[in-house]
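Meet the record:
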Amino acid sequence: MADLGPGGAAVWERTGGAHPRRIVAAVLLLGLAVEAVHQLLAGEGAPDLPIIDDWLHSGLILAASAICALGARRREPGPGRAAWWCFAVALLLFALGEITWGTLYADGGVVPTPNPTDVFYIATYPLFMAGLVLMVRARVLDVPWHRWLDGFVLVLVVATPGVALVILPVLESAPLDQLGRLVTVAYPLGDVLLIGALLGSLPLMSWRLAGSWPWVGAGLLCLTAADSAYSLAATDVVSHEGPYDFLWSAGALAFAVGSTRLPAGAHPSREITGWPAVALPLGAQLFALATQVYGWFRPLPNAERLLTIAVLVVGIAQIVVSRPRAPRDG
């Protein structure tokens, strides 16, 4: 089912008028540029400038949430509309987390883990994930088994370096209490799963990059990059404002742009043949093999070894499921 019904495209183009949209876009882009320049020039650990680091930053994310909600309302009922409601609510919760942080911890100092902002931030992960799933449902009519395996192997490929580069370093500096460790690791784990799901959705959609999906991808990449930078730099005494916080605003605005794109209709799964059909499983196998060889020279965490073994197993399953079959006799 397409996101827009008969005549929906015309309605989509007429709604709101071109000039107001351009003015809003220019204002938001200018705000993002101001925030980015300020934070990059100020550098790490600079004093908080509330008008930019708090008000402008949160305002950009709130505006992005409102635009996504408007984009959801303009779509017909179905998975496409539900996806954008998920994104809108996720951005709203993120903005509320930023506002709460600015209210409670703007002066820096000791920030407890967990703290009230974690409720807002962590709640965004299942919403973003649900939005991705619903986008796939809105775009694909049928998904063969081997495409699901392609998506799963991409999740594993992303998770393998993510464990060593992000999750384990964060765990080393996490609080000693169990709840604090659980909350601390929830952020990098959520980021790794989101990026894995983002890339894993590509084969499910037959590698069709159209409509709003590229903007959703850019938004998630910006958000998770900012999360990772903050998670790796955070200590017991922190200032939330950093040189890359504008990436959160940029990610939110990328979602806003995506919500204004003409929705892509649902398509049947496209058959891929030749080298493109084997490139992903072959690349995943080589990646897993290279990781295991690397383990002979440098110590690898047990989680890394298990993930690469899982990649190899799924790769074998891909070959079995997608193997050519003799035609059945009528």
